Amino acid sequence: MEKHSKPNEPLVTHIFTADPSAHVFEGKLYIYPSHDLDHNGPDNDNGDQYKMEDYHILSMDDIDAPCIDHGEALHMKDVPWVSKQMWAPDAAYKNGTYYLFFPARDKDGIFRIGVATSKNPAGPFTPEPNYIPGSFSIDPAVFMDDDGKAYIYFGGLWGGQLEKWQTGTFVPDATGPSGDEPALGPMVAELSDDLLTFQNGPQEIKILDENGNPLTAGDEDRRYFEGPWMHKYNDYYYLSYSTGSTHYLVYAISKDPKGPFTYKGRILEPVIGWTTHHSIVQFKDKWYLFYHDSSLSNGVNHKRCVKYRELKYNADGTIQTMKPYED
Ligand code: FUB
């Protein structure tokens, strides 16, 4: 018998999954996760432990329905420019086509962002022959605004190589700002009409504190690390992300999808495992946080599982902070 989905429990247990990007397509929930592979290789700050090679797309007819694995939707052997590490993906829909956006290392070991398309939200997806020109780093998240514009947010520190692009070209030994210097923000670019190229940008997003000053690199509880997500609530843009080294999911808001954003608070306290990565989606009349932890492997960083839980707003638009192992 199929297992019905429950909050705070792994959506699937037959494979390891992470980095869930959830969307409502065709009236159902579709979840686009990474597919973690087991191995005995090194676990380090470069992210060598995350050796993913393909994507499996999940769906749920309803929030408490069984979670279906639709099988392999895209494998790196079918993407000409990829050498390894297909990390956190996202998806979008426009004019009868579904788009899968994914980061991976190119043949030179540099992270780039690619696109693949399908007529079916569960794939299989056909990749474009090359990565998006001008793309770099990891963790693409695509946001379709009410006015028809599409934005792609991306970037990740350390293994995600964002520090190496501060001059606009790849500098292999570049390090990030430190201490009191402004932290690096995620990148945003407007996508072209066909969603296959950058139309404007990319440009760096500024995240400010309550006094209007940029968050500093030393402010590891609040500064951007990786895993951006964008959603809109009550006419505000909510940029949420992981703080990486301090393991929080946090958010900042703005009236403009390109910012600057003002830091507002925490969404989720640390989970089991080093990484924390999420998406936020409205389904029917409720909002949900999709996230992952390493509980399915008793804490092995690269053997993760995707989960969801309800997300609630306060009357003033702030998000109620959640503790992952409490209801
Ligand atoms: O899954 C590989 C990487 O780990 C993702 O790209 C990051 O966001 C982190 O979850």
TrEMBL record:
Q: Does the keyword Hydrolase apply?
A: yes
Q: Which domain of life is it from?
A: Bacteria
Q: Which UniProt keywords apply?
A: Carbohydrate metabolism, Glycosidase, Hydrolase, Polysaccharide degradation, Xylan degradation
Classification via InterPro entries: Glyco_hydro_43 (IPR006710), Glyco_hydro_beta-prop_sf (IPR023296), Glycosyl_Hydrlase_43_Enz (IPR052176)
- Gene Ontology biological process terms from the UniProt entry: xylan catabolic process
Catalytic machinery residues: D38 (proton acceptor), E204 (proton donor)
Instruction: Enumerate the GO terms in the molecular function aspect.
Output: hydrolase activity, hydrolyzing O-glycosyl compounds
What Pfam family is a match, any one?
A: Glyco_hydro_43
Q: Give the site residues for Important for catalytic activity, responsible for pKa modulation of the active site Glu and correct orientation of both the proton donor and substrate.
A: D139
Entries under CDD domains matching the protein: GH43_CoXyl43_like (cd18619)
Family, similarity comment = Belongs to the glycosyl hydrolase 43 family.
What is the name attached to this protein's record? Glycoside hydrolase family 43 protein
- Name the species this protein comes from: Variimorphobacter saccharofermentans
